[in-house]
Amino acid sequence: MADLEKLMDQLSELTVLEAADLVKMLEEKWGVSAAAPVAAMAAPGAAAAEEEVEEKTEFDVVLKNAGPKKIETIKVIRQLTNLGLVDAKNMAETADSKILEAVGKDIANDAKEKLEAAGAEVVLE
């Protein structure tokens, strides 16, 4: 029987192109296809990826409407973002402005509560 450790070391030194050529040569010699086992292995990974998508961990806080108390909304935007008055005012006047991006669930919910208390219409995405 061949020395498996030595064979493994030799295979580890192959470049990606050389490994692809080796696969083709083995497929021709043994009359098999390496594609079927690879496809079967990909299916569990796809299911795991779908589970990760379902549980979102990062949220964007999006301002849909500043509401009737625009000044209060601007104050809250400034507190949340540390923006200047002009930038916060522009953000409050622009529909679908992202107040916070890629924040945790707790921070996003807290920001949403503060903005809604100021009269703004907010959505978490």
Task: Note the topology.
Layout (H helix, E strand, L loop, with lengths): L3 H9 L3 H15 L4 H20 L4 E7 L4 H12 L3 H9 L3 E7 L1 H13 L3 E4 L1
Antiparallel strand pairs: 1-2, 1-3
Short key terms for the protein model shown above:
single chain; 125 residues; Ribosomal Protein L30, Chain: A
Written overview of the protein:
The chain is of the alpha+beta class and 125 residues long. It folds into two domains: 51 residues, no CATH class; 66 residues, Ribosomal protein L7/L12, C-terminal domain/Adaptor protein ClpS (Ribosomal Protein L30, Chain: A). 62% of the residues lie in helices and 14% in strands. It is built from six helices and three strands. Strands 2-1-3 form a three-stranded antiparallel sheet, covered by helices on one side. α4 packs across α5 and α4 packs antiparallel against α6. The longest helix has 20 residues. The model has no long low-confidence stretch (mean pLDDT 81).
Shape descriptor reads: rod-shaped
Instruction: Report, as a whole number of angstroms, the end-to-end distance.
Output: 59 Å
Query: Uncertain segments of ≥5 residues (pLDDT<50)?
Result: none
Helix content: 55-70%
Q: Which class best fits the helix and strand makeup?
A: alpha+beta
